[in-house]
Design a protein that fits this description.
This is GH16 domain-containing protein. One of its GO terms (molecular function) is hydrolase activity, hydrolyzing O-glycosyl compounds. Helix content is about 15%, strand content about 35%. The protein is mainly beta and about 375 residues long. It folds into 2 domains: about 50-310, Jelly Rolls (Sandwich), CATH 2.60.120; about 310-364. The protein has a 17-stranded mixed β-sheet that branches. Strands 1-20-21 form a 3-stranded mixed β-sheet, with no helix packed on it. The structure holds 2-acetamido-2-deoxy-beta-D-glucopyranose (NAG) (5 copies).
Length: about 375
């Protein structure tokens, strides 16, 4: 009889454990703060995403600092620490890692990744607002660069950021040529899709691509003009949607380009970087020059490997719309569900059946 109680106790334990699973999951991949969304929809297509993250840099006054000392030739290990405890704790650390201590010598100008090139700044045009600053500096021996890498590996996502490029003030309003801002997914050189801004390009032009993009793969890239006469030195919302077999790019909500060519097929990290390797694509930055990027927020609706495979699986769940919400970063409930906890109750039902099955078996 003792073993009977051991079995029942174990099953009850499993049962209570199972009921805690949803909380643990939502801790890892935060849900919209004001709602309990099960799936997220975005404008423009049907794919449903099971995860959502909004990294907001606009109200971080108590973390804002003045610009950290510029990287010098002596800082050639890239081991500078992160510039704020903000980067070491959730929500930021759930989603992002700032690369550092990495040297990429396979370039005309070696690139060294430093965490001192990411910091929270007060917006000089509105002191109640803050943003994330990304910085790249050309010193004599190398280019100090910065890269954020997403912790989750995404398999299909709608990725957005609001940013603008800032000059270093050494040439009036001129932004130093030779830097590249990249907002892209990457797993390998043939599994990559990009939004890239080249500071050697005209200030109205943005490059969109899936890789490989070349004359052998027509339709895998486009050079587009930012809508409404804006430049990349203005605040612009950039959006890259990656679906199974199709990519779509938007700027300020306007569809700019889409393609079915070279669309990535494997789980990939989202990267946000600012770099220059001195080769022809980026160009070479002049020694002593810097380029800055101001970032107000990064928003991602995404699936992980194995998620979002069947649109039927999401019927009866609470759906939220990423794009119709009145407040940026707070997806709006568009379809309620009474079966919200159905996954949990299914697990509980199965566990209960097993318990009662065992009781019945013991009684016989
Ligand atoms: C900054 O403010 C937030 C919320 O207002 C608070 O949670 C956080 O602990 C503060 N951080 C510092 C370094 O003061
Ligand atoms: C790095 O920065 C973090 C957060 O600001 C701080 O807690 C930590 O002590 C620093 N580490 C070193 C080695 O300075
Ligand atoms: C893709 O681009 C074509 C031509 O510009 C446009 O007609 C179509 O609506 C776009 N598709 C999506 C999903 O935006
Ligand atoms: C999804 O649902 C539709 C209609 O209810 C059905 O025809 C289809 O076979 C289902 N697909 C899957 C993969 O279950
Ligand atoms: C969803 O349910 C909540 C609580 O039951 C309710 O307040 C809300 O109005 C519902 N929303 C929709 C879109 O039906």
């Amino acid at each position: 009889m003792l073993s009977f109680f051991v079995v029942v106790f174990t099953l009850l334990h499993i049962q209570s454990h199972a009921s805690r699973l949803p909380e643990r999951r939502s801790h890892l991949y935060p849900r919209a703060p004001s709602s309990n969304c099960d799936v997220y929809v975005v404008s423009g297509q049907d794919t449903k995403f099971e995860n959502y993250a909004f990294t907001d840099f606009r109200s971080l006054s108590n973390y804002s600092i003045s610009e950290p000392p510029s990287v010098t030739d002596a800082d050639n290990q890239g081991e500078e620490n992160i510039t704020s405890p903000y980067f070491a704790q959730p929500p930021f650390s759930d989603q992002w890692t700032i690369r550092r201590g990495i040297r990429n010598a396979e370039s005309d100008v070696p690139m060294i990744y430093s965490a001192s090139n990411a910091y929270i700044s007060k917006d000089p045009s509105d002191s109640s607002q803050t943003y994330l600053t990304l910085r790249t500096t050309r010193v004599q021996d190398f280019q100090s660069v910065v890269q954020l890498v997403s912790n989750p590996k995404l398999l299909h996502a709608s990725m957005r950021t609001r940013m603008k490029i800032l000059p270093d003030g050494k040439d009036g309003d001129g932004v130093a040529k030779g830097a590249v801002v990249g907002f892209f997914t990457y797993e390998a050189d043939t599994q990559e899709t990009d939004i890239e801004i080249l500071t050697q390009d005209p200030s109205t032009t943005v490059e969109l691509s899936t890789q490989p993009a070349s004359s052998d793969t027509p339709g895998a890239d486009a050079s587009v003009k930012i809508p409404n006469g804006k430049k990349w030195t203005d605040w612009v919302d950039y959006r890259l949607d990656w679906f199974a077999g199709k990519n779509v790019w938007y700027m300020d909500g306007e569809m700019m380009y889409n393609t079915t060519k070279s669309v990535p097929t494997v789980p990939s990290n989202l990267m946000f970087n600012l770099w220059s390797n001195g080769q022809s694509f980026s160009g070479k930055m002049r020694v002593g020059r810097e380029v800055y990027v101001a970032v107000q927020w990064i928003e991602i609706a995404y699936n992980l490997d194995g998620q979002g495979q069947s649109s039927n699986g999401t019927s009866g769940q609470t759906q939220c719309s990423v794009d119709s919400g009145k407040t940026k970063g707070s997806p709006e409930v568009i379809k309620n569900s009474s079966a919200k906890r159905s996954a949990v109750s299914r697990v509980l039902k199965i566990a209960n059946s097993i318990v009662f099955g065992l009781i019945a078996w013991y009684c016989i």
